[in-house]
Amino acid sequence: MSSTASAKNGTWRNWGGNVGARPAREVAPASVEELAAAVRRAAEDGLKVKAVGTGHSFTSIAATDGVLIRPQLLTGIRTIDRDAMTVTVEAGTPLKRLNMALAREGLSLTNMGDIMEQTVSGATSTGTHGTGRESASIAAQIKGLELVTADGSTLTCSDKGTEEERAVFAAARIGLGALGIVTAITFAVEPIFLLTAREEPMPLEKVLAEFDQLWAENEHFEFYWFPHTGSTNTKRNNRSAGPEAPVGQLAGWFEDEFLSNGVFQVANWVGRAAPATVPAIARVSSRALSARTYTDIPYKVFTSPRRVRFVEMEYAVPRAALPDTLRELKAMVDHSGLRVSFPVEVRTAPADDITLSTASGRESAYVAVHMFRGTPYQRYFTAAERIFTAHEGRPHWGKIHTRDAEYFAGVYPRFGEFTALRDRLDPERLFQNDYLRRVLGS
Q1: Strand 77-81 vs strand 86-90: parallel, antiparallel, or unpaired?
Q2: CA nearest to 368, candidates 389, 395, 350
Q3: Residue 196: how many CB atoms within 10 A of its CB?
Q4: What pLDDT, in 10s, does the model give residues 380-425?
Q5: pTM beyond 0.85, yes or no
Q6: Residues 221, 209: Cα–Cα separation, whole Å
Q7: Confidence at 3, pLDDT banded by 50, 70, 90
Q8: What is the secondary structure of 212-238 as a DSSP string?
């Protein structure tokens, strides 16, 4: 089960290996009716319920000692509506399967994150996003939702429904598993298109000085900064009339597998064993990647394999605060004696209207810090988090952070709207766990 979480002797573990749980029982329902029955039975037995995807969250958002719902039988496309340009999929469908199925139909999502191992409901419920000037997170592309609520009934919602349904839709697109168990999602799709990717190294100071311009001139701009260096690798993705010019198989294997996964894995092993070597490795890594340009269909450009296991923290800060945030992060790393072997990833998103979206009501820039799995990460993440929270940062719901409900009430203007809806939909807290108690309050 390499790409997903693993279960050994009744213990569930996440992909990053930093979260484990021992549920009282596991259920893999084959239909919405079976799922609803499992929810009702859990309530009768006094057990909490959590649905889990592929375990790509680094927080304990999916952990439970009650009933663990596994979605692997709730997969596949229900309907494609070419008039409305939507696709409805079962909640357990991996993004990878959705992307490939849509491509066969000549369709695509508008934007996506940088991996596609997650289930559609796991990815959207935690706010998974890519980078985009106008196009937002995966959840922002949702047009309708179906979920099983705490009383075992099935609720459908969209922005076209009753007042209550619209309120549910505003919150449940990024629902953290707190409002019910998502069983199907309707996404907006569009005719498949080509993207030209241009990757090239650029000095960090140049990227920060020209950040607004780079953001404005590209539909999708992102960059990776290599700590202990002044170097970045930038990536611009823009729509293209073609022709297709994919990365060659050998070049693709060399850059995406050998360098980005193989050599990187070895470099991290060396860095974990001998932290003093990390800055030298970082300097070599930042120079190993050369400029390249290629044109392909969206999911082949937006996503890439990530086989090196890590733990991650990511915060959304106001887009205007990005240059200061990064300069402070660099100064902190330079003066801390920390040894950071993973690049820092920077992306953007437009403001959206989802209650607890990290981009809710504000244009955002995302800064993600990573540490190789098995390396102590607390000191680095704590210092980084201090910088992010000073800029009113909002942490990604599925990545490591130490914030609580009191903090969120201050950085999310509509926080009370979400908790009030939760009180209505799950008054008995059937979907509660330790993580939700901390981030939403009890």
Answers
A1: antiparallel
A2: 395
A3: 18
A4: 999 999 999 999 999 999 999 999 999 999 999 999 999 999 999 9
A5: yes
A6: 15
A7: very low
A8: HHHHHH-SEEEEEE-TTSSEEEEEEEE
CB contact at 8 A, 112 and 303: yes
The tens digit of pLDDT for each residue in 103-150 reads 999 999 999 999 889 999 999 999 999 999 999 999 999 999 999 999
Contact 185, 53 (CB under 8 A): no
The pairs formed by 391-394 with CB atoms below 8 angstroms and a separation of 24 or more are 391/317, 391/318, 391/321, 391/324, 391/325, 392/317, 392/318, 393/315, 393/316, 393/317, 393/325, 394/315, 394/316, 394/358, 394/364
Provide the pLDDT for residue 331.
Answer: 98
pLDDT for the residue numbered 1:
33
d(CA 174, CA 138): 10
Q: Note the residue count of the chain.
A: 442
| Residue type for position 417 | E
Q: Which helix (H) or strand (E) holds 123?
A: helix 120-125
Answer whether residue 184 shows pLDDT above 90. Answer: yes
Q: What's the whole-number mean pLDDT along residues 72-86?
A: 97
Q: Rounded to a whole number, what is the largest CA-CA distance in the chain? A: 60
Contact between 43 and 428 (Cβ < 8 Å): yes
Give me the torsion for CA of 306, 312, 313, 319, rounded to 10°: -20
Q: Which two tokens stand for residue 213?
A: 């311009």
Give the percent of the chain with pLDDT over 90.
Answer: 80
Phi, psi for 213 (deg, rounded to 5): -70, -45
Q: Hey, is 156 helix, strand or coil?
A: strand
**Angle, CA 286 vertex, CA 284 and CA 287 arms, to 5°:** 65
Give CB contacts under 8 A, 24+ apart, made by 424-428. Answer: 425/149, 425/150, 425/168, 425/179, 425/180, 426/149, 426/150, 426/178, 426/179, 426/180, 427/150, 428/43, 428/150
* Among 221, 29, 5, residue whose Cα is nearest residue 132: 221
Q: At what angle do helices 264-273 and 278-288 cross, to 10 degrees?
A: 170
Provide CB contacts within 8 A for 204, sequence distance 6+.
Answer: 225, 229, 230, 231, 232, 326, 330
**Using one digit for the tens of pLDDT, what is the confidence trace for 325-358?**
999 999 999 999 999 988 999 999 999 999 999 9
pLDDT-based confidence at residue 212 (cuts at 50, 70, 90)? very high
Percent of the chain with pLDDT over 70: 92
What residues contact 8, with CB distance under 8 A and at least 6 apart?
Answer: none
Q: In Å, what is the CA distance from 335 to each residue of 71, 148, 257, 296, 332?
A: 46, 50, 33, 42, 5
What is the rounded distance in angstroms from the CA atom of residue 318 to the CA atom of residue 281?
A: 32
Tokens in use for 119? 């289930």
